[in-house]
Amino acid sequence: MGAVTQRLPLEEIEAKLAKTDRIAIISCNTCVRFCGTGGLEKMEELASQLRKDGFTVVDELLLTAACIRDYTERARLSKSINKVIALTCDAGWTSIKQALPDVEVIKANETLGIMIVSPSKGVLKLMKAFEKYKKRQGDEFGLLTGEPMKKRVLNLEVSE
After folding, report:
1. What DSSP string describes 29-93?
2. Which residues in 103-133 are b (16+ Cβ under 10 Å) and which e?
3. Which pLDDT value is given to residue 19?
4. Does residue 157 register a pLDDT over 70?
């Protein structure tokens, strides 16, 4: 079980940045990777796009799970950064904010709720949605892509 996330539009992320910012990107390598909204590949893609758009990305850090506070507290980033982009769920974003209180931490993902993952079937299922996403409870997404599935794969009961 983990968090289901969807990526915020690049324009929304960039609107919170200035060309003079010195940016670090921190991503998890678990839930958000399963959702296609984080992990090494997505972190490198975001860093590349930001650099192409004229922003200064100083550090890229891949954590097993940013929601595990010990990992964020041990993060070694350049002292010159003033913004961090969190390719994490809300729990990871909060953990990074607490570990780096002097740096602005920007969300790159929206958390929909909690999931069950089935690697053998290549799918993840939104089992318990946050209030804002209740209508999406039970939705299924492609593993590693986050693409909505056209038909149900996991026959699991979701709680109300």
Report:
1. SSHHHHHTS-HHHHHHHHHHHHHHTT-EEEEEEEES-TTSHHHHHT----TT--EEEEES-HHHH
2. bebbbbbbbbbbbbbeeeeebbbbbbbbeeb
3. 97
4. yes
Helix count and strand count (H, E) for the chain:
5, 8
Residue 91's Cβ-side half-sphere holds a number of Cα atoms within 13 Å equal to: 17
If you ran DSSP here, which 8-state letter would residue 103 be given? S
Q: Global pTM?
A: 0.92
Residue with tokens 């318990």: 128
Structural domains in the chain, CATH included, are 2-111 (3.40.50.2300)
Long-range contacts of the stretch 8-17 (C-beta < 8 A, 24+):
8/107, 8/108, 8/109, 8/110, 10/46, 10/49, 13/46, 13/85, 13/106, 13/108, 14/50, 14/53, 14/55, 16/83, 16/104, 16/106, 17/50, 17/55, 17/83, 17/106
Look-up: residue for tokens 């910012």? 21
